Amino acid sequence: MKSSPKKIRPAQKQEQQPGVEDKMQPKPDAIPEDRQRKLENKVAIITGGDSGIGKAVALLFAKEGANIVLSYLNEDVDAKKTMELIKQYGGEVLVIRGDISDEAHCKDIVAQTIKKFKRLDIVVNNAAVQFPQESLEKISAKQLHKTFETNIYPHFYLTKAALKHLKQGASIICTTSVTAYRGSHHLIDYASTKGAIVAFVRSLSASLAEKGIRVNGVAPGPIWTPLIPATFDAEKVAEFGSDTPLQRAGEPSEVAPSYLFLASEDSSYMTGQVLHPNGGEIINS
């Protein structure tokens, strides 16, 4: 037999719609919380935080009071500049260089975070790679492994290492993609990893709901990041994003507020969901 639903409010009934709030016990909470900065004293790990979306998220989080652990592969110049900007917002920052496809490195990121900050509140799984191919036959086993090892495995590695340090109210945010929903004929392996991330978000959110840890995702459309000129030829880069309803690529700063919303108490009643800053493309979520 199924257990009865928990009675979390006194039994009550009103006879007329739409109802009278003043008669309700307790009354609905509609008062905005008085918070000057939404992430004051929080600690956030952000993978791929040296540039692009990760950089924009790191800077916005720092502006809202968070301390940042910036994970990156080998882009030293970008990482240093982002670190300096974070400090300008008054946030402390720990920069960690290395390959997140290595589980041991992911464990070390968490260990260094706890050693420096003594806490962890937010995990942003963001780093990714993509390698266009015109057909499935051209996707080598080597490329397939590289894409999956970079794009989805670290979500498991880093989150698993972080879980024992995350408390009620913590937030896990994963970067998926519009390609997870509509597919991509020339990014089959990439889109497949992004679809896996959606399933990861939905499954992990159900697993952690009782602990009060929220898991959500962001599915950007075409965003102007270093990954784009590193992926496509010059002609495609020049037209990148022009096929969206808004007829342009988005900026990382236009995506970062989605992460802030999901990291903060503003989204306290959201878990297992994905936000879609994608330039207006209607997708089946």
TrEMBL record:
Stretches with biased composition (Basic residues): 1-10
Pfam families according to UniProt? adh_short_C2
Q: Where is this region: Disordered?
A: 1-36
Biased composition, class Basic and acidic residues, residue ranges: 20-36
Keywords for this protein? Oxidoreductase
Asked if the record carries the keyword Oxidoreductase, the reply is: yes
Q: Which family does it belong to?
A: Belongs to the short-chain dehydrogenases/reductases (SDR) family.
Top-level taxon: Bacteria
Write out the GO MF terms. oxidoreductase activity, acting on CH-OH group of donors
> Which species expresses this protein natively?
Haoranjiania flava
Q: What is the lineage of its organism?
A: Bacteria, Pseudomonadati, Bacteroidota, Chitinophagia, Chitinophagales
Q: Name the PANTHER family on file.
A: NADPH-DEPENDENT ALDEHYDE REDUCTASE 1, CHLOROPLASTIC, NADPH-DEPENDENT ALDEHYDE REDUCTASE-LIKE PROTEIN, CHLOROPLASTIC-RELATED
Name it.
SDR family oxidoreductase
Q: Which InterPro entries match?
A: NAD(P)-bd_dom_sf, Sc_DH/Rdtase_CS, SDR_fam
**Signal peptide (UniProt feature, chain positions):** none
The record ties this protein, via SUPFAM superfamilies, to: NAD(P)-binding Rossmann-fold domains
